Amino acid sequence: MSKPSLSIVLPTYNEKDNIKILIPEIEKTFNHINHEIIVVDDSSPDGTATASEKFNKEYGNIRVIVREKKEGIGAAIREGYNNARNSIIISSDSDLSFLPSDMYRLFEKIQEGYDLVLGSRHSEYSFYELTTLKVRIKGWISKNGNRVLRLITGIRVHDFSANFRAIRKDVWKRINTIEKTNTLLLEMILKCKYGGLKVTEIPVTFKDRIYGESKLNLGIEAPKFLIKMIKYVVMYRLMGYKPINKNA
Question: Taking every pair of C-alpha atoms in the chain, what is the biggest distance, in angstroms?
Answer without folding.
Answer: 52
